[in-house]
Every structure is written in C-alpha cells, then in structure tokens.
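Hello forum,

I keep getting stuck at the same step: I have a sequence, I want structure tokens, and every attempt I make locally crashes halfway through. Rather than fight my setup again tonight, could one of you with a working pipeline run this one for me? It's a single chain of 486 residues.
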Amino acid sequence: MISFKRMVFRSFLMVSLITPFAFSATLTVKQGGGGDFTTIQAAIDASTDFDIIVVSSGTYNEDINFGALNSQPPTFKNHVTLKAAEGADVKVVAANNKNRVQALGASFGVNDKLGCFINGSGVTIEGITFQQNDTEPNGLEAAPINSAMTIISPDVTISDCTIIGPGGETGGDLLGILLANLDPISLQMGVPNLGTNLTVTNTTFTNSPFGFAINNFLLALGLPAPNPDARLIGCTFQSNGTGIEMDDGEVGAIECTFRANGTGISCSDDNLTINACTFDANTEYGFELETGSIEPDEPAGAPAVTIVDSIFTNNGLNTGSYGIMLRGGTTTVTRCILSNNVSANLYLNPDDQREVTATFDHCDLVNAQESVGIQLTQNPVAVITLNLTNTNVVDYDCIDNMASVVAEINATNCNLFASDAQYLGDDGVLTKTNVLNVDPMYVDAVGGDFHLKVGSPVATAGVGGTYIGALGLQGTGVEDWSLFSF
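Reply #2:
Ran it on my machine without issues. Output:
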C-alpha cells in the first residue's frame, strides 16, 4: 500500500512538472548602509525573476533601468518588484547621465533623459516618487523628449506612486510617464517587446507639460506593430500642461481626476474610454479630441471615444475654452454632466477634411459661463452629425449652429430649456422629436446636484418613459454616488 507521505510527494512532483514555481528573494536598499545595497540600480542588477526590492527612505539620484536597448538582442529584467519600505519616503530623481538605447541607432544625445527605464515584462513598482527636473529634451532628432519614467515592455504595473516633471508650463515634449513601442530589434527578431497591458493605479501626475503620454514610435519607422495600451485607475492629474496625451494606442481612464491642468485629456488617434472621471478647472479644455497626430490611413470616424458617468465643470479661463472640444472622430457620451464651462459646454469644430460624429444620451449640459450650451463651428467645410437623446440642455441659447447646412442635428426626447433661443441656425438641418422647453427642476444645480426633484416634468419624458438627464429622480439611490459631489 502506498503511504500517505509517498502520495503527497508524487502529487507535488506531478504539479511541479506542469507548474513553474517562482522562488523569490527580497533585496533591501539603504543609502547609508545596513541593507543589501546602497543604490537601487545595484539591487536591480542583482535581481532575478520574481525578486522583490524594498527601498528605505531617501532621495536617490539615479537613472535606474530594468534592462536596456544597448545590445542586440536587448537585455531584459522581467518580473521584478520595486517598492518603498512600509512608511518610507522614497524619491528617485533622474540623474540624466546614461544612454540605455544605444542599439537603436537613433541619436538620443549623450544621455537619453528617459528617467526610470523599464525594458522588462511584468515589472511592478509601488509607492515611489519619480522626478525629472531637466527642462531640456534629449537629442532625438525626430521627436526630442524627456521623461520621469519610460515603459516599453508589456504587463507593467505602477501603483501608489507620484510622477513629477520640471514644470507644467515648460516648453517641449517633457513627459511624466511615456508608454511607447520603442524596440524594433525584438520585433524584427520575431519576439515583439511592446508596451502593452500597462496598469497604473492611485498615482499622482503633476508639474509636467504632459503627465502621461502614449505613442507607437514603431509606426513611424514603417514597422507594423500593435498599439500600446494602458488602464489608469484612480489616478490624479494636476497642474500639468496636459494630463493625458494620446498620439497612438488605447487608453482607459477610470475614476481619475483631472484638475487645474491646461487640458485634462487630449486624444488624436485610436481608442479612448473615459469612465467615472472628473474634469474640473482645467484652463483650456476638459477633454479635447484633436486630429494633429492622426495617420493618413485612419478612417474618417477615427478616433473613437467613449465617455461614461463623468463630469466636466468649470473648465476654461478665457473665451475659446470648452468643457468638451471635438475636432474629429466619433464620440459617444452617456450619463455625463457638463456645467459652467467657459465659452460653451460642448464645441464641435472639425478640422478640414475630418468629420465629427457625436452622440449624447442621458446627459445634462447646464449654464455655460458665456451662455451657450452647444456650439457648432463656422468652418464652411466642416461635416458634423450631432445626436441628442434623453438629454437636458439648459442655457440662454441651447444650440448655436454656425456650421449651417454641413451639420445634421437630431434631438429625440430631449429638453432644450432656453432663456432665449432653443436653436440658432439653419432649421433645415435640425430634426426634433418630442423636444420640451421646460425647467427640469434640478435639486441644486448651483451646488452641483443634478438629480431631478419629485414632480419634474422630465422625470418620465425620455424614450420609453425613462427620465431625461444623467441622474434621474432624487431618492433613487444614484445620489449616493460620490462622483457627482462638486
């Protein structure tokens, strides 16, 4: 009879043959000694897969890197965790004294100025501040940049960190975090190393011209490579020139706050999802869809943007600032509130040869500072399609269509509550079905509560008897959702 111990051993052996076991070591870093290493880079160099590096308090002036592009094939440092010790205050300041991309053959200058450089899959970083103080970009001829952190590999996780740049108003492409496809060597060797599946949680981005940027540099080299993609969850973007800059790739921003930036998010290509985010007091736009970096072969409907359960309030300092600015692409907005933005809550202004298609369902656009809810461009070659359903527009003038006959506007089961005019422009492009002009009876619009009071005339005026607006009646449970607390 087989003994119990022998059965356990055989089971362990069988599992070990089919499941790779990850044996990890914990390495410690203390600047003044007493740990395994006195520099972070020395600990990274000594680490192997699944090791954990724990860093004690201090300011570390280092260009740290997980792998590099200095050889063919490149070197990688995979599945390493770097984190601050419990309660420690750890700051890594870019020294800008390394070049870790020499094998690319492109002139980045003597120093690449790419901050913490991650060329390794499965890297995790927790609880550390990364800072780039240099106000000058590197020497890359095609696109000079610098950054506090650069990520070019898949499955990286950044959590509970702070990313600081050299000044939100500084000129040039100076970035907090750059996520990019930057490794043509691995791609040509048949083992692509791409900046995919990045997750950033509970991280603050501040004081950079661009807090977070995403780009597919391989496309510029004529190399077909899937775009990088990222999810940013619970992050704060404050006092940047632009919070998120999208030139290529796919981004999901979830429960993020964009406050006191120039622009909260600027998207010019591919796919963006904004879910449960707040855009408040940005000086130019809350969100801008622009087409400056769109590839010529992109379809007319690109980029594609989905915005859900988000608020845009108090954005803009001067005339020409808007809650949402759309210059092209296809944007779908659901259960969102746009209120007290400067020139208009929504502006549709397509660039030449581009089209804008915007669909708003169950939204509230309320009292822009210059008294226009929705404004359409004067551009005579613009092509605009605007669809409004179950939506309140409350303003002096609800829709100001300066685009005339090149626009198509459809309003179905909406409430255009105007102090002056529901609609200005060519009537031939406006189709209205079941459109009201009544006070929606918000609980406290000035205080930011856009629930409907009991007895509101729009409480059952939506399609199929649903409510008009983002939140419905007070007392339905939605009012407990803290997102809509201004």
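The two ends are 72 Å apart (CA to CA). If your local run keeps crashing, start a new thread with the error log.
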